[in-house]
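Input record (one chain):
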Amino acid sequence: MKRLALLALCLLGAVTLRAEDPATFPVGGLTFKRPATWAWVQVNSPMRKAQLRVPGGKADEAADITFFHFGPDSGGDVQSNAQRWVSQFRGNENAAKIETQEIAGKPVTLVSTEGTYTSGGMAGGPPATTQENYALLGAIIEDKEGNVFVKMTGPAPLVKESRQKFLDFLATALAAK
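The corresponding structure, as predicted from the sequence alone:
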């Protein structure tokens, strides 16, 4: 019984010691401000610089936003990355849209598509999984410290309804630079 109580106390201490989820976080040369309703997700991949979770209307529904930065002149060119993201979706090839916009005075390539999403399956990683009726809203932000890749994937209705909040989120990071 004492061991169980000690274990419970240790677990409580570990949870209490966890740092509060950051309100802002850097990726490359940008600093993003996390919307309060978007949850911080701990990452353990050296490639993934940050991750957020956007809650949906149902308890089991959420979209993930992942952030990547590889440094100056690394990570591949904008067009190749945009095409690679689009190629992860099947079944609705006419939905793919790649456009360059200026957000807060910076060039940003926005990528959107929907259909059946295939993720994973890289050598040494988890096996490939597929998700039907998923969507992508991604941004490749060109920056002198290297491109920053921001990719939201999740249930299509949630990603679509989150579009404006996602764009506003990008603008705060770019405007602060």
